[in-house]
Amino acid sequence: MGLWAALIDRVAGMLAYFPPKPPTYTITSSEGGKYTLSGGFTRDLSRCKVMKLDTERRRGGGGGEKIVAIYVPYDTGNGVGAKKTLLHSHGNAVDLGIMQSVYVHLSETLGVNVLGYDYSGYGRSTGSPSIRNTFADIRACWSYLVDDRKVNPKDIILYGQSVGSGPTCELASKVEELGGVILHSPLASGMRVLKPTIEKWPVWLDIYPNLEFVQKIKAPTLIMHGTADEVIHISNATLLHSLCGNSVSPLWVEGYDHQNLDFSPQYVERLGHFMQEISMS
């Protein structure tokens, strides 16, 4: 990894990542090698599969870690599961102990399977948070779905929330086939969030230059943001919407902020409509 890349990763580590300390959950394994989560807001659901995924080392740095992930199949009643799968990248101050119940809710509400994961350095995943590690983390999850579970890439929807919009946009800009993208309170650029007065910043010096990534995304992309967000201003989302190569009608929720957008009545309704839109395309 070059000197500048290492510096940017260090800055990002100090400013962009706030993993819960200590982790909100513990992970245990049985004699058969089955992992279970406990603590936090976890629910004991037999259909949830907990696993550890190896991340591949990347040229330029990142990878070589073991991350914790959870797969929640939609309960169709016949044991088959749903056709569509959400690959969810969470925000910066949570881990799987908090998110498991969210994934179960999304699965049950939208009728989809959900794969969520903890970034390197989050929860019980090894390593430390960095830009390049998050890219390796989401790629390991993508490989699990496509290679291990044999999910058609056209049936995968990438969902990135807050800082999770970074790895989501990076992956979405590179894969050839993809069902859709959901950006929940996304950032247009890490430096734009840290220094809103900066008009331009070199991409190679930025933290998650999503404004560059979205221009290369071919899949239908839904962007959602609250108008009262004081953490990541809604101007980030409107900029991404204007630049995105295949953006659908966005959701701007009046009066909602960075922490409660998903509690708005419009949230689930718009997600449901988006799932219908991409199913018909």
From TrEMBL:
SUPFAM superfamilies: alpha/beta-Hydrolases. Keywords: Hydrolase. InterPro entries: AB_hydrolase_fold, Hydrolase_4. GO terms for molecular function: hydrolase activity. Residues 83-191 form the Serine aminopeptidase S33 domain. The keyword Chloroplast does not apply. The keyword Hydrolase applies. PANTHER family: ALPHA/BETA HYDROLASE DOMAIN-CONTAINING PROTEIN, PROTEIN ABHD13. This is Alpha/beta-hydrolase. The lineage of its organism: Eukaryota, Viridiplantae, Chlorophyta, Chloropicophyceae, Chloropicales.
